[in-house]
Design brief:
Length: 695
DNA sequence: ACTAATGTCCTTTTT
DNA sequence: GGACATTAGT
């Protein structure tokens, strides 16, 4: 008797009665349907780019609820909060559309699903159950910059800052530390594989990390890595562990290819048998190994859970076939663990265009012009996106867009929240929230004239010994500090005890900080405006603790999200790093700076693995496009008064290039655009005339 | 002890 | 070209 593929058997004879006509399943293809109705055994969905992965996941959530699972017992782990919100929105719409379904909903009307990033969920759980493993209730969270600052403080305290040969920088130290934690690798392995130049410092680094961990504990702070390790510790705790495991009937994980070892261990601990566990991912889109992520998690899933099923989604609903062909050509040389043959039903469509630009200015001008052309043709700005490898790649384009009055939002790169003056303001609140938070304290104290690192450290020690800000009322401070000192102590004492709205608290801190800002920076006006924005942002949060945690875990990703009032109907062009474009799609996509050295980045060509990740990054960029795709690179780069020649990305192999139409963009010229032949003729005649002088 | 100034390294992606 | 570390000066 011929055997049928597992999925088919299960669909017919599974524990769910015939549901071909079920409204949740109506719009799904057979593979998606199999994934949605799969029972509570572990499931891996291998979903290629644009194959309706979000749709499948949202439908599966809705399906669970229709099955009678309590939404509050569903855990949905995503890569960004934005992704979680989108997924929940879709699931909720589906559930509401079901006749006779009433949703157990909170006052906000939304499903009470546990949705968010690993880090956000960890925070929620640790706030609620952290005391089981001895975590203080008022812990504060360090973002990457804070963690680096603390690493720096500890490094200085240990005397490692002034060694004969130069000790690794704070950022490097943190990167090594974080790699050990997230990838679960020993210091020796990490040093050997990724930081060979730091190997002579192995012993000092070990000492530094010990002190760093101890300092974090004393300060009552958690860094990003701690959120994960403490979640895992909670699960391994004999009393808390079973309780946490008992909270969830279904666990769904998006973007599984970009999770790291530590996150996989959390899942193992959360669901040892894989009961109710669904993970979705695409090994061809793994682009976060620099953060410790590994595709091994996907590859090992079926081995770790022997009764796991694997379902592949291969029909692409996003892109036209010509775009898909180009993207597939880029990936043709890559090793693929789960071979997928993506195909599209949309066979017609314009060939993607490879645009060779004279220089960077030409590239910016060309993209701006093309964007307007598409808008004229009826494609809104919001349906168009410009993607690039590094944040600074868009600077020239931003200027050009500003000049032409084209509105845009930029995602990725330096965040609003990372700017020095914003961090300053928030440090006041964080210190009030947790007086032991040394990084926040040193930051606040350092703002005052007359206080440098040495005195700030002593003041923090005094504060730690006494436990509250009254430790600072009697202390003697330098002449230069004396004037402001009482006001600072009063401010902190007030903030510490108050329960007034967090926006009011921010405003008090701002009032104190304003004069200091004017002294410290030569452009205080725009910075002061930023601070007012932060006060506005504060209105959206229930309390100080929530504000601080949310801003540390999921800061507003677009500067413009904050800078302009939320007018939903605004039309704007999207500018984004490729990393931040993950999971999104647009009608028109422009990939700029597709020159070798930018894609792949020169910073990431050290090993074959790194280069492969850059290839996948390029693939992710191309597969964001639905209907039009432009890949641009400048021929000349201006470096000082010298210009260097660039080559197109090495990923644009002859086979790949054949999938593109070709276009040369020259300097923009009023009137007729000069074509290549005309121009070379003009230059030939100049050359001939010049030569007469010496012939 | 703190601030200002000069010299040297690194230059990416993000929870 | 900007961050960072060390050095000299107040």
């Amino acid at each position: 008797m011929p055997s049928l593929p597992d999925e088919d058997v299960r669909e017919v004879s599974g524990n769910v009665p015939s549901h071909k006509d079920h409204p949740i399943l109506a719009s799904l293809n057979p593979q998606q349907r199999a994934a949605v109705v799969h029972d509570d055994r572990p499931l891996l969905i291998v979903a290629g780019a644009g194959t309706g992965k979000t749709k499948a996941l949202a439908h599966r959530v809705a399906w669970h609820i229709a099955e009678g699972i309590d939404p509050a017992r569903i855990l949905l782990l995503t890569f960004t909060r934005r992704a979680a919100a989108e997924m929940l929105r879709r699931a909720e719409a589906l559930v509401r559309s079901l006749p006779g379904t009433k949703i157990a909903s909170g006052s906000s009307g939304s499903l009470r699903i546990w949705g968010g990033t690993f880090h956000a969920i960890a925070t929620r759980l640790l706030r609620r159950y952290g005391q089981a493993i001895g975590l203080p209730a008022d812990f504060t969270i360090h973002d990457q910059t804070d963690s680096q600052d603390l690493m720096h403080a500890v490094r200085t305290a240990l005397g490692l800052a002034k060694t004969e040969k130069r000790f690794p920088q704070k950022a490097t130290c943190l990167a090594i530390y974080s790699r050990c934690i997230n990838a679960r690798e020993t210091l020796d392995d990490v040093l050997a594989d990724r930081f060979p130049w730091c190997r002579p410092w192995r012993l000092e680094l070990a000492r530094l990390f010990d002190a760093y961990v101890e300092r974090k504990e004393k300060s009552g702070v958690l860094d990003y890595d701690d959120l994960l390790t403490h979640w895992l510790a909670l699960l391994e705790d004999p009393t808390a562990g079973p309780h946490i495991r008992g909270l969830f009937d279904r666990i769904l994980v998006d973007e599984y290819q970009d999770t790291n070892r530590l996150q996989a261990e959390i899942l193992y601990a959360l669901s040892p048998e894989g009961k109710g566990l669904t993970v979705v991912g695409d090994d061809a889109q793994a682009i976060y190994s620099f953060r410790g992520a590994t595709v091994e998690n996907i590859l090992e899933f079926p081995h770790h859970y022997p009764n796991a099923s694997v379902i592949a989604l291969e029909q692409n609903y996003r892109s036209t076939q010509p775009i898909l062909r180009a993207a597939n050509a880029i990936m043709a040389d890559a090793r693929r663990a789960y071979p997928k043959k993506l195909w599209s039903g949309r066979t017609s469509g314009q060939k993607p265009v490879l645009v060779t630009c004279e220089d960077e200015d030409t590239q910016a001008a060309h993209v701006a012009r093309q964007v307007l052309e598409h808008r004229e043709a009826g494609i809104a700005l919001r349906q168009q996106a410009v993607l690039f490898r590094a944040s600074h790649h868009s600077i020239l384009l931003e200027a050009e867009l500003q000049r032409r009055d084209i509105p845009f939002h930029k995602y990725g790169g330096l965040k609003f929240i990372e700017m020095a003056h914003v961090k300053d303001l928030l440090a006041f609140l964080r210190l009030a929230e947790n007086p032991r938070d040394m990084v926040a304290g040193l930051r606040v104290l350092g703002l005052l004239p007359g206080i440098g690192p040495a005195r700030a450290n002593r003041l923090m020690q005094a504060l730690e010994d006494q436990g509250d800000f009254s430790a600072w009322t009697a202390i003697k401070v330098p002449q230069a500090t004396a004037e402001l000192w009482p006001a600072l102590v009063a401010l902190l004492q007030h903030l510490r005890g108050t329960s007034e709205p967090v926006a009011t608290q921010l405003d008090r801190a701002r009032a104190f900080y304003q004069p200091l800002l004017e002294i410290a920076y030569d452009n205080p006006v725009p910075r002061a405006r930023d601070l007012e924005q932060i006060v506005q942002v504060g209105m959206q949060y229930a309390d100080r603790r929530t504000l601080l945690a949310e801003l540390a875990l999921d800061p507003p990703s677009s500067t413009q999200d904050l800078a302009s009032p939320p007018r939903r109907d605004d039309d704007y062009l999207v500018l984004s790093t490729i990393h931040s474009a993950k999971g999104l799609e647009w009608d028109v996509v422009y990939v700029i700076h597709a020159a070798d050295g930018d894609i792949p980045s020169d910073m990431a060509t050290g090993s074959a693995e790194e280069i492969e990740e850059e290839r996948r990054l390029f693939y992710v960029a191309l597969t964001r496009a639905k209907r039009w795709l432009y890949v641009c690179y400048p021929l000349r780069y201006q470096a000082g008064h010298r210009s260097t020649l660039a080559k197109p990305s090495r990923f644009l192999s002859p086979t790949a290039v054949a999938c593109f139409e070709h276009l040369s963009a020259a300097c923009e010229w009023p009137g007729a655009a000069p074509n290549a032949a005309e121009e070379s003729q003009a230059r030939r005649s100049i050359r001939e005339q010049t030569r007469r002088y010496w012939q």
